[in-house]
Structures are given as C-alpha cells and as structure tokens.
Design goal:
Order of helices and strands: HHHEEHHHHHHHH
EC number: 7.1.1.-
Enzyme class: translocase
Pfam families: NADHdh
Radius of gyration: 21 Å
Oligomer: single chain
Subcellular location: Cell membrane; Membrane
InterPro entries: NADH_UbQ_OxRdtase_su1/FPO, NADH_UbQ_OxRdtase_su1_CS
Low-confidence stretches: none
Number of helices: 11
Strand order of the largest sheet: 1-2
Length: 346
C-alpha cells in the first residue's frame, strides 16, 4: 500500500471527524434556537453574536464540571458506556460517499473513507453496537431509573431495527447492491432517486431512524417525566457530554444515510448539463449533499418541538404491529413490481 494513499485517507478521516464534531456542536445551538422560535422566545443570545459561541461555552462547562461516579457503581463499565456510545457514533460515517472523485494532478482522490462492498451491513452492525453504550451505562450506574432507561433503549432498538432492516431489503431489491457508493452512483440526476421507487420504504426507514437516535417522540430511554434522566441520570461532566454528543452525531449520520439511500446523495438535477469541470461538479455535489443533510437535521428538530412523546405501549405497538407488517408488505409489492417490469418492460 502506498504511503500517499494512507496519508490521503488520514486527511479525509480528520476532515470528516472535524466536520462531524462541528455539526454536532452547532446542532445543539440550532436546536435551542428553533425551540425558542417555536415557543415565541429568544434562544441563547448572550455568548457572541446571536449566541454563536454558546456551544464553546457549553463544551467548557462540561470539561470543567466535577466528575462524579456514584458509590456502588461499576467504575470501569460506568466509564466504558459513554465511550462506546461516542466511538460507534463516529465510526459509522466511514462508508458514506461524501462526493464524487477529485482529480488533483495525476491523482484521483475518492471522497469516501472506505468503499466496502457490504457498506449497508457495516452501517447496521455499527448501529446495533451503539445500544451497548446505553445498556452498559444504565446497568453500571447502580440506579433503578438508569437501568429502566437502558432496558427501554435495548427493547426499542431491537423492535425498530427489524423494521429498518426490512425496509432496506426492499431497497436492495431495487438497487441490487450493498455498496453505498454504487447505490448513490445509480441515482444520478433527479428522476433516478430511490425515493420515487421506495416512498413507503423511506417513511419506514425515517421513523426507525428517529427511534434509533432516541429522538422525540421516541425518547423513552431518557424520559425525564418518568425516569428522571433515564440511562444517564447518574452521569455528569464530560461523560454526560459524550452521551449528548453521540446523540447529535447519530442524528447527523442518519441524515447523511437517508440522503444517500433515498435522495441521491451528492447527485443533483442537471449536474451533467452545466458544462463545468469534473472537480467543480464534485465540489457542488458535496455542498448539495450537506444541504440535504442539514434539511433532515432541521426536520429532526422540528418534530422534536412539535410532537408529544409516545407512551411505551404505543411505541411498541407502532414498531411491532404497524411498521414490521408494512415493511413486509413493501417487500412483497417491490417484488411484484420488479417481476412485472422485468417480464413486460425489459
């Protein structure tokens, strides 16, 4: 393996890591600003112009607050819980194609850290690991509210990962590939976006993404009206910050995944008819991709400050009695349409 290739990938990893952290930081500010707008009040506006320095102040507060580990807690697992949560959140973006290839001199640079041919399976594996961070933190806290929050997170994750996986199967029947790079490349232009072929699959996937990120109305694992703070009741300082950061990073990665799978990723209408150079098309594609991601993040926040939280029985009924049957019906319908198309229109 060439050293230049390794350095190129390390630089790309560093850039994605920094961008991910920046978006997670300023998502906290955006969330509070949007909440303020919807509740007819000002959001944070004291730290810098329009409160632009508020995330830095929050980060400083997390760093300098006192570290407290409760008596009776399992110290190693108590520390390991938020560590697993933030690591799994950060590594999940490794297979997302952020743009087409850049041509610099005689080198062709791919804007994807790892182009594995089972990219979707990798994403599901990493997402499934994320719940271990919540389970370990809740169990190790030696607190009944934390444990109940952790158990809720595990059962919620299992329930909604099944429906999410089934919705992806229908998409794979259309794309015939597990590679995210190939799935995005197939959606060139506008009419080839998978949302037109899989609208029901997208809705199921999006609802499951809300549940996997523990966002309202699916934030039962940290439901403060019933469980104080849920699985992170006993956490303080930067460990609590890591849990909060992982939630926002998961939201960012989920938005990137939805944009890649269903909304063309870096593709945009008339991209090949503008007469621009390949590098300029790539840069525009990256910008368009991030606009799509930010729109999804805004949607996450809009829903949070619009809908009430589900009861736990309602959450389970939605997962097992509605989403899973709908996802299975979507697979059957996709199979029928594919068969008709291949038989009569190929």
């Amino acid at each position: 393996m060439e050293w230049s290739f390794v350095i190129e990938k390390l630089i790309l990893v560093f850039i994605i890591f920094v961008v991910t952290l920046l978006i997670a930081m300023y998502s906290t500010l955006a969330e509070r600003k949007i909440a303020g707008f919807m509740q007819d009040r000002y959001g944070p506006d004291r730290a810098g112009l329009f409160g632009i320095l508020q995330p830095l102040c929050d980060g400083g507060k997390f760093f300098f607050k006192e570290e407290i580990i409760p008596a009776g807690a399992h110290k190693a697992l108590f520390i390991l819980g938020p560590t697993i949560a933030i690591i799994t959140a950060c590594i999940s973006s490794a297979v997302i194609p952020w743009g087409q290839e850049l041509q610099i001199g005689d080198r062709t640079i791919s804007l994807q850290v790892a182009d594995v041919n089972v990219g979707i399976l990798y994403m599901f594996g990493v997402i499934a690991l994320g719940v271990y961070g919540i389970m370990l933190g809740g169990w190790a806290s030696n607190n009944k509210f934390s444990l109940m929050g952790a158990i809720r997170a595990a059962s919620q994750s299992i329930s909604y990962e099944i429906a999410m996986g089934l919705s992806i199967i229908a998409l794979l029947m259309v794309t015939q590939s597990l590679s995210l790079k190939e799935i995005v490349a197939q959606q060139s232009g506008f009419v080839n976006w998978n949302i037109w072929a899989q609208p029901l699959g997208f809705i199921i996937f999006m609802v499951c993404a809300f549940a996997e990120c523990n966002r309202v109305p699916f934030d039962l694992p940290e439901c403060e009206t019933e469980l104080v703070g849920g699985y992170h009741t006993e956490y303080s300082s930067m460990k609590l910050g890591l849990y909060m950061f992982s939630e926002y990073i998961n939201m960012f990665v989920s938005s990137a995944l939805m944009a890649s799978l269903y909304f063309g990723g870096y593709n945009f209408p008339f991209m090949n008819d503008l007469g621009l150079s390949a590098n300029m098309i790539t840069i525009l594609g990256v910008v368009v991709f991030f606009i799509k991601i930010l729109l999804f993040i805004f949607f996450f926040m809009w829903v949070r400050w619009t809908l009430p939280r589900f009861r736990y029985d309602q959450l389970m009924n939605l997962g097992w009695k509605m989403l899973i049957p709908l996802a299975i019906a979507n697979i059957v319908l996709t199979g029928v349409f594919t068969l008709i198309k291949d038989t009569y229109f190929s």
